[in-house]
Write a structure and sequence with these properties.
- By secondary structure, the chain is an alpha+beta fold.
- It is built from two helices and four strands, in the order H-E-E-E-E-H.
- A four-stranded antiparallel beta sheet has the order 1-2-3-4.
- A hairpin with a 6-residue loop joins strand 1 and strand 2.
């Protein structure tokens, strides 16, 4: 079995360069998730994760907002 499937990581089509504690991915299939930042339910092929933890998923909108507010060395804090 594929290592990613064992860890419940969806199949990734493209990985973006990590930026600080965040990394964005384009997935092969649509993913339903709750954004860690805005707490809204999302449906998208594009998702960012926090600290390489796939249980900490961030929507594309919040990812862009977070990048605009924080430097690469900043520590992000989520409730």
């Amino acid at each position: 079995m594929n290592e990613n499937m064992e860890k419940n990581i969806p199949p990734v089509k493209k990985s973006e360069t990590p930026y600080g504690e965040l990394q964005q991915f384009v997935l092969e299939k649509i993913l339903e998730f709750t954004c860690l930042s805005c707490k809204k339910n999302k449906v998208s092929k594009r998702v960012a994760i926090h600290k390489n933890d796939w249980s900490k998923q961030i929507c594309n909108g919040c990812y862009g907002m977070l990048l605009s507010k924080y430097s690469e060395n900043a520590k992000l804090v989520f409730p």
